[in-house]
Amino acid sequence: MTDLLSRFAANSFWMARYMERVENMARILEVNETFARDREGRHQWLPVVLLQDDKKLFFQHHTEADAQSVCNFYMFDRENGNSITQSVWMARENARSLRHLISTELWSHLNVFYNRLNDLSVRPVTASNLSRLCTSIKEDCQLHTGIVEGTLYRDQSWFFYRIGKLLERADQMTRLVDIKYHNLLPRLEDVGTQVDVSQWNAVLHSAAGYHAFRRVHPRGMRPNTIASFLLFNDRFPRSVRVCIREIRALLVRLRNDEGLAAADSAIGLVDAIRAATEPLSIEQVIQMGLHEFNEGIQRHLIKLTNEFGHAFFGGETYD
Prior knowledge:
Order of helices and strands: HHHHHHHHHHHHHHH
Number of domains: 1
Number of strands: 0
Shape: globular
Strand content: under 5%
């Protein structure tokens, strides 16, 4: 690939990752307000910070992880690279470099979306407007996806866009499952109570997986079953297994249809992830340590992202 094409591939990849991150964050904030309560009925907001690994940055500016501080930190704080406003800005900046490759509709929508968020940032987020705001953000993300699906030409930019979206989705899913098991785990006497069920409901709704889960498991809600569904289900489009398999299929097409032999090394890394995860049952994963399993997948995904940087994006690497 030429340096120019490498830059465009990276722009497509990261535009997709940032927009997927925005939708995930909107879901997490909305669901946390609706479902995630402790045994006294109070909302828990610190797990949102822990989920994104932002504890150090958050407490540099805030003394308490309450609804207003966490929501504003993840909605509008430009110093927070995971905030919705900053992520939409980054998606728009990547799209700016792709102006000649993307549709006018796609570029216009990203500008409108970003400007709307900027206008909203002058007002603090409150419990009364959080759900409405998150719903609006999710709808904008879904509109973005629809415009991409309907207008983006199916060349290399399309492949790297899809790969970026799936990588971000897989990474977020491992974090979501991990945070419930280790930071939201109730006391033994709470297992199976309304508190525990509510928290697992929150996990499924955050992953947009509640209704899909109920189609497979119409009754009951066991932690192992939910974790297995989100990590290993072959038909749920947000499961880690589906994301990894689709990434591999896209890489094979890049190699075969687009003639990019450099895809071989990335395919090898994807095959290593599948070899380390697909033979395992959820019981085996929990026995060996679910936290360690999720962290292992995250390290693999970082390594894969760095391989893309080396093979396709002009040598860029990421932490």
